[in-house]
Amino acid sequence: MAIIKFPDNIKWGAATASYQIEGAAYEDGRGMSIWDTFSHTPGKVQNGDNGDVACDSYHRYEEDIKLMKELGIDMYRFSVSWPRIFPDGRGEVNQKGLAFYHDFVDALLENGIEPMCTLYHWDLPQSLQDIGGWNNREVVDAFADYAKLMFQEFGGKISKWITINEPWCVSFLSNYDGVHAPGNQDLQLAVNISHHLMLAHGKAVIEFRNSGIEGEVGYAPNVEWIEPFSSKQEDIDASNRGMGIFKDWFLDPVIKGRYPDFMINWFSKKGATLTIEDNDLEIISQPIDFLGINFYTGSVGRYKPNEDLLDVEKLDIGYEKTDIGWNIYPEGFYKILAKITEQYGQIPIYITENGACYNDGVENGRVKDEKRIEYLKQHLISIRRSIDTGVNIKGYLTWSLLDNFEWAEGYDKRFGLVHVDFNTLERTKKDSFYWYKQTINNGWFEK
Ligand code: BGC
Question: What domains, with CATH codes, occur in the chain?
Fold first, then answer.
């Protein structure tokens, strides 16, 4: 048995996102988002599930905050539903939407929990999709206006802001792979959108600084570690591309003020060009205060022509997998954090998501999810190693507080520390909840 101990000043938290938990899709003036449209389109989401009710957190947030309080988290990461604030994405503000988030944030603060607010976790107002979505620069400006309003409204209450969650998912997964809303399959579109998202991020950072409110702003890319299959250059290049589409493509422009040539060249080989207008890079590379990192998985990568967009075959070398089929690769977590620090310096990092899908149910009032506990332990050991080797980790927020609407996978895939019965909406604390609570309370766990 070893004791894995964490620095006293590390912040512990849990994360969720609006469309995945709120429900109340048609209430209090909320407009439609692309996820309403997508999830109501037959064949897009497993079992035809949608977020109309989800965890009903819109009505049950007091109960959820009680759970957070009991868990002992310092920080709660949630996202704001843009179409609750601007039902049409821009123009008229919905006061009831603002009022909801004021009540919610006030309740967090009263309970001593620091809010970390994500402005965009994928629920783009449908009216903005109707004018081309993120492919249209008008949408970038609409986002900056929405961000500005949120900073003005919540300055003094919310001090940690995340502009965009997982730009890779918003661009490539949603517009090249077509797996998420709006479900397009067009590489040029995905490349355009990735650039516009970075621009939207930069414009929001400028609004944040101009607003003069106190606090910190960053964004949250998702990353994976891909270990080269062999020392052959073609395998090394393939894994660099595999990681580059998450890491370099979305970190270089913000932190270094330019896009990585190896990725620009690769996309152009596959027929897509990157178009940058004057000043774009200057806007995108506004200094940020912290980087959010989301990490779940990794793999071994081997060069295989025409395997996928990046010509990298992700090999199964016998990893254990979670119930969503993702490899468990805690060593990759350590490696990617070391790599990010090597490439971008000791930028403050919050792990804004890390967690595991296990679908254990309630038996006699208890959920025995020991595999989730094991996953968290292994990944926290990687965090501990990262801190020891100079990665500037400020906080760790697990995904997720609650089982919720897992996008295209619907309700069957569970990531929560708290089980949700999607018929009765009853919440049941899992064994991992008690384990995390004890870890937070002690500042260490036993392995
Ligand atoms: C997203 C979450 C999602 C989680 C598990 C991340 O990609 O930000 O919304 O539920 O991973 O798939």
Answer: 3-442 (3.20.20.80)
What are the b/e assignments for 222-259, b being 16+ CB within 10 Å? Answer: bbbbbbbbeeeeebebbbbbbbbbbbbbbbbbbbeeeb
Q: Within 10 A of 3 (CB to CB), how many other CB atoms are there?
A: 9
Q: How far is the CA of 47 from the centre of ligand 1 (A)?
A: 19
Distance in angstroms (rounded) separating the CA atoms of residues 398 and 401: 7
Which entry of 207, 313, 353, 406 is annotated as an active-site residue?
353
Measure 269 CA to ligand 1 centroid, in angstroms: 30
pTM, two decimals, is 0.98
C-alpha Rg value of the chain to the nearest Å: 21
Burial of 302 (0-12, 13-18, 19+ CB in 10 A): buried
Give distance in angstroms: CA of 92 to centre of ligand 1. Answer: 30
**405 Cβ closer than 6 Å to some ligand 1 atom:** no
Q: How far apart are CA 310 and CA 101, in angstroms?
A: 41
Residue 234 annotated as catalytic: no
Name the pairing type of β-strands 114-120 and 75-79: parallel
Residues 6+ apart with CB under 8 A from 8: 443
Is residue 353 in contact with ligand 1, taking CB distance under 6 Å? yes
Q: How far apart are CA 76 and CA 61, in angstroms?
A: 12
Model pLDDT for residues 292-344, shown as the tens digit of each residue:
999 999 999 999 999 999 999 999 899 999 999 999 999 999 999 999 999 99
Q: Is the shortest distance between the CB of 352 and ligand 1 below 6 Å?
A: no
CA distances from 41 to 122, 182, 183, 408, 413 (A): 17, 11, 11, 11, 20
Going by the DSSP 8-state scheme, the letter that residue 71 receives in this structure is H
Q: Which long-range contacts link 366-371 to residues 24+ away (Cβ below 8 Å)?
A: 366/428, 366/431, 367/419, 367/428, 367/429, 367/430, 367/431, 368/430, 368/431, 369/430, 369/431, 369/432, 370/431, 371/322
Cβ–Cβ < 8 Å for 248, 225? no
Predicted local confidence at residue 349, as pLDDT:
99
Q: Decide: 403 in ligand 1 pocket, CB within 6 A.
A: no
Helix axes 370-388, 431-442, angle to 10 degrees: 30
pLDDT exceeds 90 at position 1 = no
